Amino acid sequence: MGVWPSPALAATRPEQNRYRASAFNSDITVQADGSLLVTETMVIHLAGGPFTSFTRDLTSNKGGGRVTLEQASLQNDPFNGRSEIEIGGRRNTSRIIWRFPAISDASLTFVVSYRASSVVQQASDADLLQWFAIPTEHDYAIDSSTVTVHYPVSAHLLRTPDAGGIPGTRVPIGVCFFPALAG
Description:
This protein has no helices and 13 strands. By secondary structure, it is mainly β. The strands form 3 sheets. Strands 2, 3, 5, 8, 11 and 12 form a 6-stranded mixed sheet that branches. Strands 1, 9, 10 and 13 form a 4-stranded mixed sheet that branches. Strands 4-7-6 form a 3-stranded antiparallel sheet, with no helix packed on it. It is elongated and about 55 Å long.
């Protein structure tokens, strides 16, 4: 399992109104067919304002494959059902836009679940999983991230992910091999 933090974790907008992810957590379940079920929980702090939307683009990752949106929500919706979720996209990208009444200086929690197919790659004597758990492109800083990976019962790691020598990181980095899942 390879899980990498984004190369540019702190890209902020130049204007006075900014938002940042105080937490970007990812729960990943490896399926026997080589796909992943991913649930991301993003706690977004809105500084300044007013803000009326938040966008998350889902794109195919390191191993290619296809990303299929399963569910998107606004946790503990403070807008009493007046928020909307718009889903669109283009080739190889799903775009989720949460629209809500104007809000300033607040934190909102956005949750998105999706399936990523054809992620596990066949290597000569094992399967290889490489996955970016944090989006590689985003226009906000991410303060912290916790990534949890669940493997099928039949799988066992041949090499454990490590922090890759990055001080303070809790995101596993590296490549792990495990015996063929579907074989």
